[in-house]
Amino acid sequence: MSRVVWSTAGTYLFMAERLRCAVIGAGVAGAEWVARLTRGPRTTVVALCDSHPQRARELQERYRIPRLYAAYEETVEQPDLDAVVVATPNHLHAPVGLAALKARKHVLMETPLALNAKEAGKLIEAAQAAKCLLMPAQELRFTRATQLARSCLLHGEVGEVFFARAWWRRHQWPRPGSWRAQRSQAGGGCLVDLGQPLVDLLLHLLNDFQVLQVSATGHILFGPHGSLEQEPNRPPPPAAGIFDVEDTGTACLVLKNNRWLSVETSWGGHFQSDVPEHGAEILGTKASLRLFPAHLSRSGSLGMENILLNAAKPGQVEDCGQHFAHCVLENKKPLITPAEILAVQRIMDAIVQAAATGKPQPLKP
Predict the structure, then answer these.
(1) Coil, strand, or helix at residue 211?
(2) CA distances in angstroms from 363 to 11, 328, 340, listed in the order given
């Protein structure tokens, strides 16, 4: 994180500090992180780690990453490293994150943060002990639409919210035998993969993480019968493999004052190609909001008004990787707090349990 100083015509100029990062995982998510961190003004990638040498070498050569490692344990111990981006399969998030925090490295984690609240709690404790930043990459919080919608809600323009829903329908499911198709490695199916970001989005927008009860359903309808997944950076799974996670699922969350939230997810289905695959809707006593992009609908003097929300400059950085770097370099508080991280993980644990048992799950305050 050292500053670079140079002189031009007798004038000293200062280059902004850059966070020196290692990306652990060279699959699809890891490759995206390498590209984003390389382009970012406050980040640089100094190391890459993956247990599959061919795909790791290709990514290293494409972005001219100085060093390549096969073991995360060796990667996190490098002295010239400031932070680690964890883009591994879900079941490796906790062990990799704990190793990085033990080595006093800041950690940006692909979602979900962990497989369960117990693992998430250990990560949070390790981050606090190391005095390092631990942040899940909740991408939807950082979109301009989310920031504008949250501003409307906080300023009371929607009134009292009585219902909200979010949906994510992706006509693409994992291959049988891949890690995403196995509950032991992924923690769940589309309810975890797509539902977790939506739950975080709605609670963040409402600024309320006190969920009283959840109900959920999940079904396996498409995955075992074939695959539409096109992810060339991943190694091929076994010819005949496990598929024991839901590929379509719905969750209902009850908040105080009997407010209801609905989350709908699917990896498969027959959807219109011109309809956005994810979005959200919030209904209030004064107006309603719809994302993405952000629209405010309300009654006006000439009837119903539908306003496209826009702003020249959002309140937060629109890239969560650069936000993470800014918080580390400037010692600022992140948009995502430890309390919110743990609350969302506990809610997801309850959703997974409700889907498995078919019974509503209460949550302790």
Answers:
(1) strand
(2) 61, 33, 15
The pLDDT averaged over each successive group of 10 residues in the chain (365 residues) is 42 62 96 97 97 93 96 96 98 98 98 97 98 97 94 95 96 88 96 98 96 97 65 54 94 93 92 85 97 93 86 70 96 94 97 97 90
- 133, 324 in Cβ contact below 8 A? yes
Tell me which amino acid residue 243 is: F
Cα–Cα distance between 6 and 297 in angstroms, integer? 53
**Residues 86, 53, 226, CA angle at the centre, nearest 5°?**
75
What tokens does 348 get?
């997801």
Angstrom distance (rounded) from CA 233 to CA 51: 13
CB atoms within 10 A of CB 131: 9
Residue whose structure tokens are 């990787």: 321
> How far is residue 155's CA from residue 69's CA, in Å, rounded to a whole number?
49
Q: Across-strand partners of 261?
A: 164, 253
> Tokens in use for 68?
């390549």
